[in-house]
Specification:
four-stranded antiparallel beta sheet; Chloramphenicol Acetyltransferase; 26% strand; alpha+beta; Dihydrolipoamide Transferase; seven-stranded mixed beta sheet; 401 residues; OB fold (Dihydrolipoamide Acetyltransferase, E2P)
Length: 401
């Protein structure tokens, strides 16, 4: 019987570490060769690690959400035959893969909570502040006269690193932010921290486009996908961008360089069970409506099935985001850093509008957008969106090659 240590291999793309996002085994399990062991996430892709040997697991290294360096031990096995860890002591005591339990209890009060008649003692001002903070006074130790609760007691509770949150006291749960969810959080935080966003919203009359879309879908071949609004919007963006090269760009703000592109690589924000991904329709300027629709459907399926490659999830120069039927009236989308613009169609709804002094019913949609004010001036952004408006309201040219 020997000891085999499986270490994190080089996962490629220059990555020196990876985050542990899922364990598929536990200490004591007997596994077969090629059986799934652990999923790790690099900057852009989740990689499934399988067992190189058959054996019994005696140690797992790393909790969910922790990052492991390339070459660091992940799993130790007892195996038949020679050890691959000759001359080495066991790398660590066996550890379970489940996250450590979190403390959710309140800090033990320095003094007993005074609750005469079952009610905490506090002034009206303290009670009002506690309600605003979501704090139950019954959980607060009072340091005032006769155990009454003061503002200082609330301050101490708020400052405590393990102060009880209302959701936890009321039977809620703590969810560790790991994997893709953490990547999304970090990217959104970085985007909002580094980019001075400004929003621009315009109303678009989609009546003609919806009529055209309906006719095209009714006449489509069986091997063609159903057209949504997104392919039309991509075509409009492609036709408008040559006159607004500052919009189809990436800004390296550390080097102070704006990289402008002639090719349009359109990121399509896609909601998946694991979170928001942005697969990329490459060279959208070379695609017609049907080709765009095919590529959007293919990429969305790959993203939702967790099969999208790093190449399919990187390299966008401008992003489109849509909530579909949940599009609402407007949004203020967050720019996909280091891009400088993002465009989001909202819900299409029938509403009354005035045309030539008459009130008529039209299919209207708000088009939301955000721009990086360091790169795109407000006037230029407004002109760009107005160009999109004109193209979408007279859509015949969007359907031609």
């Amino acid at each position: 019987m020997g000891r085999y240590v499986f270490k994190l291999p080089d996962v490629g793309e220059g990555s020196t570490e990876a985050e542990i996002v899922a364990w598929h085994v536990k200490v004591g399990d007997t596994v077969k060769q090629e059986q799934d062991l652990v999923d790790v996430m690099t900057e852009k892709a989740t990689v499934e690690m399988t067992s190189p040997v058959a054996g019994k697991i005696v140690a797992l290294h790393g909790q969910l959400g922790e990052k492991a360096a390339v070459g660091a031990p992940l799993v130790e096995f007892d195996v038949e035959g020679a050890s691959n860890a000759a001359g080495e002591a066991s790398l660590a005591a066996p550890a379970k893969a489940e996250p450590a339990a979190k403390r959710t209890e309140a800090v033990p009060p320095a003094q007993p909570v005074a609750t005469p008649s079952g009610k905490a003692q506090a002034s009206p001002a303290v009670r009002q502040r506690a309600r605003a903070l979501g704090i139950e006074l019954g959980s607060v130790a009072g340091s005032g006269p006769q155990g009454s609760i003061t503002h200082a007691d609330l301050d101490a509770l708020i400052a405590s690193p393990v102060a009880p949150f209302p959701a936890l006291r009321d039977g809620g749960e703590e969810v560790k932010v790991i994997g893709l969810r953490r990547k999304i959080a970090e990217k959104m935080q970085e985007s909002k921290r580094r980019i001075p966003h400004y929003a621009y919203v315009e109303e678009i009359d989609m009546t003609e486009l919806e009529d055209l879309r309906g006719r095209l879908n009714a006449a489509k071949r069986s091997d063609q996908p159903k057209l949504t609004v997104l392919p039309f919007l991509i075509r409009a963006v492609v036709l408008a961008l040559p006159d607004f090269p500052q919009v189809n760009a990436l800004f390296d703000d550390r080097a102070g360089i704006i990289h402008r592109f002639k090719a349009v690589h359109a990121g399509i924000a896609t909601q998946t069970d694991n979170g928001l991904l942005v697969p990329v329709v490459r060279h959208a300027e070379k695609r017609d409506l049907w080709d765009c629709a095919n590529e959007i459907a293919r990429l969305a399926a790959a993203a939702r099935e967790n099969k999208a490659t790093k190449e399919e999830l990187t390299g966008s120069t401008i992003t489109l985001t849509s909530l579909g039927a949940l599009g609402g009236l407007m949004a203020t989308p967050v720019i996909n850093h280091p891009e400088v613009a993002i465009i989001g169609p909202n819900a299409i709804v029938e509403r009354p509008v005035v045309r030539d002094g008459r009130i008529i019913i039209r299919k209207m949609m708000n088009l939301s957008s955000s721009f990086d004010h360091r790169v795109v001036d407000g006037y230029d952004a407004a002109q760009f969106i107005q160009r999109l408006k004109a193209l979408l309201e007279q859509p015949a040219g969007l359907a031609t090659d």
